[in-house]
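Appendix B. Raw example, untouched.
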Amino acid sequence: MNKTKTKKVNFPAVLMKLTIIILGLLLFYTVGGLIQLKDVIDVDNNMYPEKNNVQENYFSKYFPGCDLLEGNCVSSDCDKYFLCNDKKYSVCEIYDCRGDFGVGTIDADGKTAISKKNKAVRDEIKKIIEKCQGSFEVLSSDCVNNKLKMRVQVSTEGDCEVLGFLAIYGNDGNQDEQQVKSAIFLDLKNNTYAVSFDTCKDIISLIATGESGVGIKQKK
């Protein structure tokens, strides 16, 4: 009677080979997945350039024939910041388009905006803002027949025409609301004005208004 020889299986060796094969497959698919992910990120960045660190001249394609004036006008250090200060921007490029300024912006939410602003109007507004920078001082204040009478002296950087005075009052019925009243005023010359309000209520804030509605604040 022939005896059949039984071959012993070396389980540790088989387990080691399987482990090596599995690790190899995992490495293959992991590297392949990373390569595929990189391709997706690159495509996404190309589709949505506002998510990147946008390079200077990004908006040049929207302003053909214009020259770049400012590539990063997002703070008051930029002398044309008045074209970009209506909102908080991560990017604000300004172009010289002869009669206009070309402005390209990206805000904090990644929203892109393109606009053109007339040079003459903007330059004039800038000049008005600059010359109306200043403050005013209340020289005297008296309540006469339930009317507040003041003498106010205004000091500005340039020859700024004062167009009015506004007083802000609290609302007795609702502390969250405020009331605004305009004054009757008379130019007494030498930058001094007689100002009258039709009430003697306590004023929260007093503001002088210059040309184009530029606010001039009271001196602290």
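End of appendix B.
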